[in-house]
Amino acid sequence: MKIERPRGTRDFLPEEMEKRRAVEKKLREIVESYGYREVATPTFEHSELFKIKSGEGIVEEMYVFEDKSGRELALRPELTAPIMRFFVNDCSSLPRPIRFYYFGNCFRYERPQKGRYREFWQFGVELIGSDSYLADAEVISLADKMLKSLNIEYELHIGHVGILRSALSLLGDKASKVMRLIDKRDEEGLESYLNELGVEEDLKDKIKAIMNLKGGREIIEDAKRITDYNFHYIEKLLDIIDSLGIKYTLNLGVARGLDYYTGIVFEFYAKDLGAQKQICGGGSYELAQLFGGVRTPATGFAIGFDRVCELIEAKTKRKAVIVVVYFKGFEKIAFEVAEDLRNSGFIVVVDVMERNLKKQLSYANDINADFALIVGEEEIRKEEFSVKDLRSGEQISIPKEDLTTFLHVRLKR
Ligand code: ATP
Ligand code: MG
Questions:
Q1: Best substitution site from 50, 139, 152, 307 to test ligand 1's pocket, by max atoms within 8 Å of Cβ?
Q2: What is the DSSP string of 107-163?
Q3: pTM here?
Q4: Does domain 321-411 have CATH number 3.40.50.800?
């Protein structure tokens, strides 16, 4: 019986994994250079963790199940709520601010398509304990640096949910659904929901005007004509972002899908990804008090690791591979030689199929190995190895003691 892989999940071949690990490595280097340190949390949590504040959109997409003791658990749809739970329970006495980063799989029951999966990976950071614009400036510039390092073409949009939320304050708990419709850019849905709520034309116009305010810094002047919101915080933040030479669009329509954002929000969009163009999202939020802790400001972002990887050409340099081929009866020596070479830092493969020399050599060619090292009676007697450079085809005899030096020199060519 053939068993299919679950819908919306993927298997990864070695080439793909090598590329993903290379991207992961680069991202780790950058976040660590900013003083962030990695944390990990469980793959599943009590489902209420996500129900408290992540918002309806996320809850509808969640994988929820009951364990054998009747607990309601959920596969994590994101990592910010788990990290804030961890912070409240175990890390709240660490010196502030706390700089955490994570790389982990997330699960959402979505309609699968390119760039949208039911299991996907997020690489993100949380900067916990500061309510200053400087904290937002740090995470935005960090996200920008990470994406830049991957040579991706993207746009950065910065907004502030405070402006929309203050306009929506009259709507009470209905505001979060309105925010969600704005996030999804569902203009028809928004119109009919606002009508359903009996929102007056004036307010409707104001909401639509704010969500369409988009452009350079100069739109702050337009915004000030629509709302009496204080833009001081945003201006100070943009001063820093400008001084770092980071390009952005100020976009007051950025609403974010998750409900817990309170202040600055931002999204990075890649060109050419269509509906799946959002490659990173973040902002400042307050979750600690909802999980039983003291009110603590925090800011962070999550990069959609899979979407980012799909934008990058596979160009990881593969390490050289040596195949030890041997005549029948020389298995022990072949295994020993291979082990010595591995200890000298090479990738070494030995036949485990009891094949003849010719078949071993043709396998070495098939897997694109760089060298074949021949082990047989003559080699042992003369204390030298025949090395076949599979890239050029030439075959050379090398004294045993010169072998590793020879391989190292050859590989540098
Ligand atoms: P979208 O609007 O595309 O559904 P989102 O607002 O739900 O994204 P976030 O919750 O902000 O996304 O998650 C952070 C990042 O994780 C996104 O910017 C995106 O790149 C990535 N992401 C979200 N959902 C998926 C998914 N189902 N498959 C792959 N990547 C995803
Ligand atoms: Mg989504």
A1: 307
A2: E-----BTTB-SEEEEEEEEEES--SHHHHHHHHHHHHHHHHHTT--EEEEEEEHHH
A3: 0.93
A4: yes
